[in-house]
Amino acid sequence: EEKLDAKTVGVLQRARLKPDSRLEKQVILDSRGTFAEGIRTIRSGVMLSAVDSKHKTVVLTSSMPGEGKTTVACNLALSFSHVKRTLLIEADMRRPRLASIFEEMREKPGLSDLIAGEGTREQCIHRVPGTELDVLPTGRVPIAPLELLSSHRFTELIEPLQKEYDVVIIDTP
C-alpha cells in the first residue's frame, strides 16, 4: 500500500488443491476454504468501494503475465454471481484461458466474433453450467487484438452489457 499508494482490497492465501481441482474455480469447488473466503472479502471490498457509484465494471490487470489475473477474475466473477447478475469478459486475446477453464466454451464464438459482427450476444455469451455466471470468452483469436479492443465497436458493446448486468468483470492482459 505504501509503495503503490493504493489500498489493498484483500489478500489471498495459497490454496491447497484437491486432486482434479482447478484454482480458477475454488470459490465453488472449496467454498469454505481460506482462498474462497479471501475472494469473498475482495468481493465485499469492491462492493463497498462502489456503494455510491454508478460504476459496475471491474477490470483486472497486472504488469506481468502469470500473476493470477485470470484466477482472481474467475473466482471473483463466480463469487459475484451468487449475489448479483454477473458477466465475465475475457479481453486477453493474445493468451486466452477461459475456454480451457470452462471447457464447454471451447470452440464457441465470443468477444472477437461479437465485436466483428460475426455473432450475436446470444451466440457469444455463455452460461457456466451449474452457476449463475455468464461468460464472454475471447472467441477466435484475432490478428490485431489491440485494434479490436480499442475500437468504437468495443465501446458500443460494453455500454449495453453494463446496463444488463449488475457487475461486469473484465480479465485483461
Question: Count of helical segments?
Answer: 8
Order of helices and strands: HHEHEHHHEEHHE
Q: Distance between the terminal alpha carbons, to the nearest Å?
A: 22 Å
Radius of gyration: 16 Å
Low-confidence stretches: none
Report the biggest beta sheet as strand number plus sense, adding barrel if it closes. Answer: 5 strands, mixed
Shape: globular
What's the structural blueprint in terms of helices and strands?
Elements: H1 26-29, H2 34-49, E1 57-60, H3 69-80, E2 86-90, H4 98-101, H5 111-115, H6 121-124, E3 126-127, E4 133-136, H7 145-149, H8 152-164, E5 167-171
Parallel strand pairs: 1-5, 2-4, 2-5
Antiparallel strand pairs: 3-4
Helix pairs in contact: 2-3
Brief descriptors of the model:
alpha/beta; 5-stranded mixed β-sheet
Explain this structure to me?
The protein has 173 residues and is α/β, with parallel strands linked by helices. Helix content is 36%, strand content 12%. It contains 8 helices and 5 strands, in the order ααβαβαααββααβ. A 5-stranded mixed sheet has the order 1-5-2-4-3. Strand 3 and strand 4 (133-136) form a beta hairpin. The longest helix is centred in the N-terminal third of the chain and has 16 residues, at 34-49. The protein starts with 25 loop residues before the first helix and ends with a strand. The mean pLDDT is 89.
